[in-house]
């Protein structure tokens, strides 16, 4: 965010163009330059100041016989270590004194006892280590004090006594370990406080309470891990707040509720993983929010930003793992004009996200791995009022045939309005090493149309669905799996499944606890639970660390010239299977194929004979139609069309038609072209069907 760089946005000096610098015709000390220069008061009022510039001269003392009318005395980058009141006493009009980059190491060496006219004092980049009580006596008019980049370890509670006019205090980049609220009790006028760059781990409750006039607070680069709920209590006038470059893992939302006047908030460069539901709510004056350069940020969850009536700009850029913005991440942001989302890992931005921002004028989504499928179709579907920033670098990354095409040139109109979920590859790694007792959060996110549902499968094959609380496991509806206090026996392969009615995608992660990883179990057993004329019910024991499982079944009796093996991919976490639509009184052979994470594969097979049916006639009819369909399904999958058997004659897309038939539908369409190998070598026809897994 621009506003946070350099000077504070509140009292930022506007670079006034072409203000003349004129010579000041006085007796000027040797090597110094005397000029009338433009000068701004700490409240940004323009003035002209009689300036003596003795910067960069390697002098060790203040030059003698300075012009009596000197208003600004610049002594930056010298070697001065001591200063007496008498050396400056005669400069009755001195308003600014710059002693930065000198050698002061003790505040008593800096003997200013009474300079009631001084407004601005620069002592930055010296070697001050301590400020005792009453360090700055007799500076009752002082408005700006720069003490940054010293070696301050200790500041006495009453160090600033007497500075009742101070507006601006820079304490950043010192060696402070705490922030003491007593410092501020004598600074009732303070408007700007820079205290970043100190190794303060925590801001305590009420730390800034006396600062009721403070407008800008910079707490950057402090190693802050947590902001307590009442840390910002009392900052009634605060408009700008920066937590840039800290160690915050969550948005300090309760603390932020205590500063209702906030307009600018900078949370850049913090290790947040998610922006969660209502992290930013009811901040009625917030205008700009920055969430940039976050190495760990994966997701902006549902209703993350709610009721921010004055928010006009949101900057969420340069977050290498940010792969998901929930379609309903934003709610009631009526003034939002600019949405910056470039240089993230987003595969898409949902149409609903854009539609939820009624005043959106411009959007930046370039330099993201955009998948040019139906989710991003809105870009070209209607005449959008929204301007794209850098459209020439807004390119498709997927699918392969559209790679590097400009997103604006993609003929989206020819696309369907449904697409498969794809789990973002950057949302969680494929391997993770943790310590015994750690809390582990795995974020699985996928975008699709319709919105996908997500579940996780543990190494034991237990399926974990959102909201369910299963021991130490918890799955959040957006797809995050939390494991509280993981133990060694919970190490193993965890798999996320994202599915919608078109199909599913899965992605697994190997979690090692204290470097250990359990071995796969020895045996695989497949059991027949029930046999009926038209279906056989199978079940098996869950097996540790399975990557994928398939069930195949066939009957040799029915195969004449065309040998057909049915294959169903078993969703992870499923341990029983109802093979339906079989022939009565027929011998079947079924095998479960399981691939494990350590590249092992195992097979277990059973055979069973279906019972004889009672309603002979009807059954045969059904079966014939079905068999035709299954065979047809194969052929037509390739052709991409299927004529529906007995349900109507309009040609439909194969997937839809099969879906309509109820239980039998194609899963994993990405595998639809795959021809499985038969048990006896030669290629067989395979129909990928799923016949109602029971425990899904
Ligand atoms: C100090 O400033 C006042 C008011 O601007 C001016 O009248 C006076 O001459 C200045 N003093 C000197 C020594 O220049
Ligand atoms: C939509 O895509 C077509 C190319 O198929 C292009 O000619 C047209 O300008 C695009 N419309 C918008 C609004 O980007
Ligand atoms: C894990 O989370 C629990 C509950 O949220 C918390 O009490 C515990 O301190 C956390 N443990 C670690 C190692 O962070
Ligand atoms: C796991 O490793 C940590 C750190 O090395 C150690 O403190 C802990 O005792 C180990 N836990 C087990 C169960 O070995
Ligand atoms: C298996 O499928 C058949 C046919 O759809 C059904 O009648 C039967 O109830 C199912 N069995 C179980 C245990 O769900
Ligand atoms: C299951 O089938 C798919 C496609 O037919 C294949 O890629 C996969 O390797 C099979 N898995 C096992 C465990 O046989």
UniProtKB/TrEMBL annotation:
Its main location: membrane. The keyword Cytoplasm does not apply. One of its GO terms (cellular component) is plasma membrane. SUPFAM superfamilies: Immunoglobulin, L domain-like. The chain crosses the membrane at residues 626-647. It is found in: Membrane. InterPro entries: Cys-rich_flank_reg_C, Ig-like_dom, Ig-like_dom_sf, Ig-like_fold, Ig_I-set, Ig_sub, Ig_sub2, Leu-rich_rpt. It is a single-pass membrane protein. SMART domains: IG (SM00409), IGc2 (SM00408), LRR_TYP (SM00369), LRRCT (SM00082). Keywords: Disulfide bond, Glycoprotein, Leucine-rich repeat, Membrane, Repeat, Signal, Transmembrane, Transmembrane helix. Residues 1-18 form the signal peptide. It comes from Callipepla squamata. Residues 421-510 form the Ig-like domain. This is Ig-like domain-containing protein.
